[in-house]
């Protein structure tokens, strides 16, 4: 399998049990593939279903139908739609990262420990791991005065930068990014861009949702647009 991931006719519907079983379509007829080290950007209006695609890939949502064949280091080609929970958890831990606009961490864990735990999860420990955590926090311009603080006190931009540091320090095989530059100033955006380029050069593939089209065009290799249920590749002029 030469592609890193191949998605074929992905569909996710939601059942509203409090509305007599009414069904809402999150996304449907989604098909694409990306290669190793390729960066795909997804654009479209809010509510079009972009986040549903990412959450289905990460298996936060279990797709209703379709196939998502991922070339796993651990398992070989595996359909993420039918993969077991155990397989999905192992792939998340070691191969696929996810960055959302919202930080979800234990309430009394410091910022540096959030990143440190991600490094330890990959098999590193000791002084070297702590130095890696510090370097990543510094790269994303998170003030050193905040490293030993609890993230619940952070601003939206600070939480997003910590989220990026936590996911990118693992240098995953595939990184899913949901609005990775939302609420960031220009200097922080440049730090994100530099890390994205470094990860791409190291072989990480990425799929990102963007509203900041100017930023997106500087990092992605291919763009897809989602509108009115149609998922189409945008041909560059």
UniProtKB/TrEMBL annotation:
Residues 5-237 form the ABC transporter domain. Gene3D superfamilies: P-loop containing nucleotide triphosphate hydrolases. The keyword Ion transport does not apply. InterPro entries: AAA+_ATPase (IPR003593), ABC_transporter-like_ATP-bd (IPR003439), CP_lyase_PhnL (IPR012701), P-loop_NTPase (IPR027417). GO terms for molecular function: ATP binding; ATP hydrolysis activity; lyase activity. It comes from the Bacteria. It holds the Pfam family ABC_tran. Belongs to the ABC transporter superfamily. This is Phosphonate C-P lyase system protein PhnL. It comes from Halalkalibacter suaedae.
């Amino acid at each position: 399998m030469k592609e890193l991931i191949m998605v074929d006719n992905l569909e996710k519907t939601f059942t509203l049990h409090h509305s007599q079983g009414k069904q809402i379509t999150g996304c449907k007829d989604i098909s694409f593939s990306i290669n190793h080290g390729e960066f795909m950007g997804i654009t479209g209006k809010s509510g079009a279903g972009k986040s549903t695609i990412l959450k289905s890939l990460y298996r936060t949502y279990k797709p209703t139908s379709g196939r998502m064949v991922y070339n796993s280091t651990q398992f070989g080609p595996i359909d993420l739609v039918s993969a077991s929970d155990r397989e999905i958890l192992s792939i998340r831990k070691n191969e696929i990262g996810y960055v959302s606009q919202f930080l979800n961490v234990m309430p009394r864990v410091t910022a540096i420990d959030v990143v440190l735990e991600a490094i330890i999860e990959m098999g590193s420990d000791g002084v070297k791991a702590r130095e890696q955590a510090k370097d990543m926090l510094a790269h994303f311009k998170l003030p050193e005065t905040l490293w030993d603080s609890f993230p619940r006190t952070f601003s939206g931009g600070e939480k997003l930068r910590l989220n990026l540091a936590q996911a990118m320090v693992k240098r995953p095989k595939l990184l899913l990014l949901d609005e990775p530059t939302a609420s960031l100033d220009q200097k922080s955006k440049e730090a994100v861009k530099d890390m994205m380029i470094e990860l791409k050069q190291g072989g990480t593939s990425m799929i990102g949702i963007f509203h900041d089209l100017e930023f997106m065009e500087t990092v992605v290799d291919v763009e897809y647009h989602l509108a009115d249920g149609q998922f189409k590749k945008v041909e560059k002029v």
